[in-house]
TrEMBL record:
GO terms for molecular function: D-lactate dehydrogenase (cytochrome) activity; D-lactate dehydrogenase (NAD+) activity; FAD binding. Signal peptide: none annotated. It comes from the Bacteria. Keywords: FAD, Flavoprotein, Oxidoreductase, Transit peptide. Its EC number is 1.1.2.4. Gene3D superfamilies: 3.30.465.10, 3.30.70.2740, Vanillyl-alcohol Oxidase, Chain A, domain 4. PROSITE patterns: FAD_PCMH. This is D-lactate dehydrogenase (cytochrome). InterPro entries: FAD-bd_oxidored_4_C (IPR004113), FAD-bd_PCMH (IPR016166), FAD-bd_PCMH-like_sf (IPR036318), FAD-bd_PCMH_sub2 (IPR016169), FAD-linked_Oxase-like_C (IPR016164), Oxid_FAD_bind_N (IPR006094), Vanillyl_alc_oxidase_C-sub2 (IPR016171). SUPFAM superfamilies: FAD-binding/transporter-associated domain-like, FAD-linked oxidases, C-terminal domain. It comes from Brevibacillus parabrevis. GO terms for biological process: lactate catabolic process. Its cofactor is FAD.
Amino acid sequence: MDYRQQLASLLGEDRVTTNPTVLMNHSHDESYHPPHLPDVVVFPQSADEVSAILQLANEQRIAVTPFGLGTSLEGHAIPYAGGISMDFSLMNQVLEVRPQDFLVRVQPGVTRTQLNRELKKHGLFFSVDPGADATLGGMAATNASGTTSVRYGVMRDQVRDLQVVLADGRIIHTGSMTAKSSSGYHLTGLFVGSEGTLGVFTELTLRVYGIPEATMAARASFPTVQDAVDTVVDIMGAGIPVARIELVDERSIQQVNLYKETSYPENPTLFIEFHGSEQSLAHDIEFAQNISAEHGCTQFLFETDSKARAALWDARHNLAYAFLHKSPGKKMMVTDVCVPFSELAKAVVDARQAIDRSGLDGAVLGHVGDGNYHAILMIDVHDAQEMARAEELNAHLVEYALSRGGTCTGEHGVGVGKVKYQRKEHGAALDVMRSMKQVLDPNAILNPGKIFAN
């Protein structure tokens, strides 16, 4: 019996498909990396079903690629080895909210927005905000972060426990509901960020937070990128408890104005958000405004109204789509790197200069409060010369970051796009990672080709 027929007998024919449209929908993510069709798409509803699927796949050496919503940016969900694309859209339940413990248990297909709608009823929120409405399973798999990581930390900081199905079908838990533990190896930290190469997540226990009493957002414009980044360094050094502090350069603002029909000054701009009490926020805003003025800030506006704040952040979050929608026929290459905070100002300026030298249309933006910055490049993937220039620019940004003690990716993950930099960044530690992969997935069925070169 063909393995696809065996899958149908396990799940039922309605949750196993080779429909060409469904296969195509699972052949790509939001990156520029070329698509590849899976052989079959499955829709499990429980950990036991995931276990049965993996046992079958492991016995027959069939590749399995987990799929959330396909919002990844480095090809994580693309099934380059064919095989099974495992879609978690039917495992999308918020299983338990524990307000007194500030914890929530969810299935991997729950999205960030869906979770926050449920948490709002309890006066709580989930902090990690990567911009896209990604699934929480996918966010844990890539150790996502985003705009709020400067205050609340990245995905790895929020995950208390994972239910993981291993390649041979074993179901394990990696942690507990406690705030800390000195018992055994920190398996949760190992699996978060493993990009589906060590196991498949079927349940997550996550830390959540009380909704702050007051929230204010500000937009500050500067003459140069250097002025903007120096302001960030001084705000962080002053201990102002910002919840978000985001940089967009002049080219980014131009694109926002074109796409959203706004009229923001077309200068390097910081988007800042403050969480706290009304009394403390008034002081924080004034302090940040004074620091900004010292660095030549040309406009500093803040918003307390929720709709106005939402509009402000909507402009930042939709920046990538602003480039896509206004660049017909082109794909978006988004690369991210992270450097020590002391290196940030020079790194961002270098990135802007490198884009200008390349002749490509691109922008610099990022979560500069934690040293993580991005370059958006609009490219014609059918133009070999343009692709070569984009790859050269990407390599320059990575090499720059690594040479200053940074990392080739601060939040997007390795996928296939950053595989080539793993040896240079990790050295002999990469062999240790390979050894772990070999122990947990000896037949190399779990998301093959990601993180490690085949």
